[in-house]
Amino acid sequence: EEQLVESGGGLVKPGGSLRLSCAGSGFKFSDYNMNWVRQAPGKGLEWVAFISTSSNYIYYADSLKGRFTVSRDNGRNTLFLQMNSLRAEDTAVYYCTRDLEVRGWCFGWDIWGQGTTVTVSS
Amino acid sequence: QSALTQPASVSASPGQSITISCTGSSSDFGGYDYVSWYQQHPDKVPKLIIYEVSNRPSGVSNRFSGSKSDNTASLTISGLQAEDEADYYCSSYTGGSLIFGTGTKVTVL
Question: Cα separation of A41 and A78, whole Å?
């Protein structure tokens, strides 16, 4: 079964940092572009970051202003999101997602993890 | 870039058809046809139902169809069923960025 499993969420104080991980299994992880998407409580979906198969292309949402860094380790089939200078408005469920297209992109995400919750509060 | 604009809610009776619009500026779609649609049931993970404007992933009902004209993408659900009651989001690649729509709650009366 193709799946993504996120981990690393939790409660953090404003200004703190967290590193999220997303482990892929059941498919060749290195063949797919990956993304992070978040959803604040009761709110809509918000795209966070994109990383291509070999990390050659990396994009971020403008609103993050350099606070987040996406990376991947294809040898460990794992995607990461380093989040620094966290704010209350970063409180959300964070999903990792896989592009439908193999070794390409269509920006349609067919596999989503179950999500990991990040809460920023003092 | 702000979110693409969707109607907050749409409702219809079983068997009817509905269309959800997703409107932005020309830069929001970036001249690409990378528009996707997602269905999200309460407390569930979003599910891809349309990609590249009008393509359906394997296993998605053909009651779902997508289209795009100028700066508006649309999702049509025909033969509405009770299980279609959910939130729906469009998304678009803008060239170096991606944006979601504001989301539409579909209610089956």
Answer: 26
Q: Which amino acid type is present at position B58?
A: S
Q: Is the dihedral of CA A27, B58, A37, A40 positive or negative?
A: negative
Q: How far is A61 from chain B (nearest CA, A)?
A: 7
Q: Do B45 and A35 touch (CB under 8 A)?
A: no
- As to burial, measured by CB atoms within 10 angstroms (0-12 exposed, 13-18 middle, 19+ buried), residue B70 is exposed
Are A29 and A111 in contact, with CB atoms under 8 Å apart? no
DSSP codes of every residue in chain B: --PBB--SEEEE-TT--EEEEEE--HHHHTT---EEEEEE-TTS--EEEEBTTTBPPTT--TTEEEEEETTEEEEEE-S--GGG-EEEEEEEE-SS-EEEB--EEEEE-
Cβ-based interface (< 8 Å): residues of B facing A: 1, 3, 34, 36, 38, 40, 45-48, 50-52, 55, 57, 87, 89, 91-93, 96-103
Tens-digit pLDDT profile for residues A16-34: 999 999 999 999 999 999 9
| pLDDT tens figures, B24-69 | 987 888 788 999 999 999 999 999 999 999 999 999 999 999 999 9
DSSP state of A82: E
Query: What does the alpha-carbon distance between residue B41 and residue B1 come to, in Å, rounded to a whole number?
Result: 26
